[in-house]
Amino acid sequence: MEKIMHRACERVKTILITLLTVSMLVLAVIYIGGARFSGESTAIKTASLPEGAVALGEDAPTKLPIYQKDLLPVSFAGIRYGGKGGGAYGTEQAAAALFDFAAEPIHLCLAQGASLTAVSAADYAAAAESNFICLNFLTSLPYQMLYALTGELGAAAGSDTAISADRVLLSFTANGKATLYLSDGTSFYAADGDITVKPSELAAMANDSRLSGFTVSENGIALSSATPYAPKISLELPSLDAAQYAEVLTLLGYKSETGISAASAADDGFTGTAVAPHGTVHVGNRELHYTAARDSGIAISGFLDTAKSELDIDMYDILGASISLAEQLRAIAPEALGGEGKLFLGGFYREEDTFTVLLGLHTNGMEISGSTYPYFAKIKVQNGMFVSLQFRFAKLTKNSYTSALFPSLWQYNYAANSAAVRTLRLYYRADELPAKNLDAVWYFTGDVTSEEVAE
């Protein structure tokens, strides 16, 4: 009996070994064949990707979270820690590195549970005498927007006061505890979210060899004695073509055939008007304009990652939908809507039940603005609907030539002789379109209307 059982076990072992061997041979054939197929198809796999394709491991721009879209560029950034440090203009990579480092603590200092209190200009100035990181932005924004553009959305700190800022200063104690100061040049606030940063990381940032010496004025303007460099730019005035016009109408919920029948190719560009029950779109040679019909509009939920009821839409949904709309329009007509220029959040306002979102165009932390191009887009939202859209046409091209400009400290001292300076920034002044070889120029605001600083 034992012999029979032994023989049965041996047979089972033999069968299992045979099956495993056959399986291994089959897998080897599949692997070798697959490798050969892959090798023969290399030309297909390495062919140029279509325009707009996204590299492996990266998200498409429209899919990135709002704080990763670079909508909060800096005009200047600086750090001082342990007696060392320096600053950089927004045209320099060192400024972006400081912003990336400071974004998280700024976000956490403005998150729910943090305290926001009014302070004096002297308090702000005193904080700039110790260890800190300072950032100057292109425009003044509500603190809720600064919160949204520096980290993952949750809930911002609550305040009964409308607090806006275009400059912030993160002050650090010896052990790295952070306090955030905010200012628009006139009002000053402190935000404390009980956040701590590693002193070793601050020391490493302060020792960046790319930084130059700087000071901070009493109202928070960061001033450098280093020379900024900026490229010349050109602005063309392209218009949409018929195919782009049709795509825009489809995006905004129109039947493209209806709009095309009312379109024409004028001498100075393509024009067209489309009318539907929810409103009117007009495309001219300088802008795209939509006006909603009474008690109607374009639902912003269609531009959100997750559809929402009109009653559930908040200010962050309005911001996200506005950015999504702008990005999709730029994808349709990239040359007419900005060219090499980048978007930034230029303003966010509320008046009763109407929200207004302003989007600007910039390059290297310098805004393009002027009488013929005051902004890239003005978007109005009411009751969860886009009720007014205005997108201005301009194609920005950066020239290869880079100009050397006067330092901000020199310009500030010159302007301070005749005015109490509130802001000082580099602009590309677009008073005429088209324009060629525009230089960046220093402008200030203060007790007088915005004036150009003479050079």
Note the main attributes of this structure:
single chain, about 450 residues, alpha+beta, 13-stranded mixed sheet, 26 strands, disordered N terminus
What this model shows, in words?
27% of the residues lie in helices and 36% in strands. The protein has 2 domains: 66-223, no CATH class; 234-398, TATA-Binding Protein. It has 455 residues and is of the alpha+beta class. The chain contains 10 helices and 26 strands. The strands form 4 sheets. Strands 11, 12, 13, 14, 15, 17, 18, 19, 20, 21, 23, 25 and 26 form a 13-stranded mixed sheet that branches. Strands 2-1-4-5-6-7-3 form a 7-stranded antiparallel sheet. A 4-stranded mixed sheet has the order 16-22-10-24, with no helix packed on it. The protein is globular, with a radius of gyration of 28 Å.
Provide a quick synopsis of the model:
With 455 residues, the protein is an alpha+beta fold.
Describe the protein's topology.
Elements (H helix, E strand, L loop, with lengths): L1 H39 L1 H4 L28 E8 L2 E6 L3 H17 L5 E5 L1 H7 L3 E12 H6 L15 E9 L4 E7 L4 E9 L2 H8 L7 E3 L5 E3 L4 E8 L5 H10 L4 H6 L2 E3 L2 E8 L2 E5 L3 E6 L5 E2 L15 H18 L4 E3 L2 E10 L2 E10 L2 E4 L7 E6 L2 E8 L1 E11 L3 H9 L6 E7 L5 E4 L2 E5 L5 E2 L3
Parallel strand pairs: 16-22, 19-23
Antiparallel strand pairs: 1-2, 1-4, 3-7, 4-5, 5-6, 6-7, 8-9, 10-22, 10-24, 11-12, 12-13, 13-14, 14-21, 15-21, 17-18, 18-19, 18-20, 20-21, 23-25, 25-26
- Main beta sheet: strand number and arrangement? 13 strands, mixed
What's the alpha carbon Rg, rounded to whole Å? 28 Å
Q: Beta fraction of the residues?
A: 35-45%
Counted by DSSP, the helix tally is 10
Taken together, the total number of domains comes to 2
Give the number of DSSP strands: 26
CATH C-level name of the largest domain = Alpha Beta
Outline type: globular
| CATH architectural name of the largest domain | 2-Layer Sandwich
For this structure, the quaternary state is single chain
Annotated CATH homologous superfamily of the largest domain: YycH protein, domain 2
Helix content: 25-40%
Structural class category: alpha+beta
Question: Which stretches are poorly predicted, pLDDT < 50 over at least 5 residues?
Answer: 1-8, 28-54
Termini separation: 110 Å
